[in-house]
């Protein structure tokens, strides 16, 4: 039985990465796909953990070979998700989470229409600006570019299945975890996962005292 595929998207500064990290800590059944990117690592990031950091030439060679199930140019950097890695983990029954932008979400849903998509919103524009400034890792022009792109990114929330407003982090984390659990408990997933049990319950053998 294949696992569920979850897509989590958000504008920069909405808290997507922190919410995903909280979900991964709380739910060992979810595996996060580690994307490939051409952007430079931020302080504290480790190659192969947050992202697989590659050069533009390496990324382009992978894209031409068809290695990516989705790829996008975001804020001047390329990002892509490995088709081979994702397919293998889902075939093993793991739930896979893709932390990607709306462009990648469109591509993934095109080849996997059953993917469950979740969009994270900040509680206000001011909160978004404050969070971007608090990072202290991006130059002012990068922050300005991210704010400029945020409105376009947020306009695509209409294409997503769920929307979480990240005003209170703990509550938003609980809501994200609740979506994952609810999707696992859908009738189609449960009947596929517990075929033998359901068959026994619907067709019990004659019981003897």
Largest sheet: 5 strands, parallel
CATH superfamily membership, which one?
A: P-loop containing nucleotide triphosphate hydrolases
- Rg, alpha carbons: 19 Å
Instruction: Kindly give the count of domains.
Output: 1
Give the N-terminus to C-terminus distance in angstroms: 37 Å
Give the CATH class. Alpha Beta
The dominant shape is globular
CATH topology: Rossmann fold
Order of helices and strands: EHEEEHEEHEHEHHEHHH
Helix content: 40-55%
What's the helix count? 9
- The CATH level-2 architecture is identified as 3-Layer(aba) Sandwich
Query: Can you list the strand order of the major beta sheet?
Result: 2-7-1-8-9
List the topology elements.
Layout: E1 5-9, H1 16-26, E2 30-32, E3 36-37, E4 52-53, H2 56-65, E5 68-74, E6 77-82, H3 83-91, E7 95-99, H4 102-111, E8 116-121, H5 125-135, H6 140-154, E9 162-165, H7 169-184, H8 187-193, H9 195-202
Parallel strand pairs: 1-7, 1-8, 2-7, 3-4, 8-9
Antiparallel strand pairs: 3-6, 5-6
Helix pairs in contact: 1-7
Describe this structure in words.
The protein is globular, with a radius of gyration of 19 Å. It has a single domain, classed as P-loop containing nucleotide triphosphate hydrolases (Rossmann fold). The model has no long low-confidence stretch (mean pLDDT 90). The strands form 2 sheets. The protein has a 5-stranded parallel sheet with strand order 2-7-1-8-9, with helices on both faces. The protein has a 4-stranded mixed sheet with strand order 4-3-6-5. Helix 1 crosses helix 7. The longest helix has 16 residues. With 209 residues, the protein is α/β, with parallel strands linked by helices.
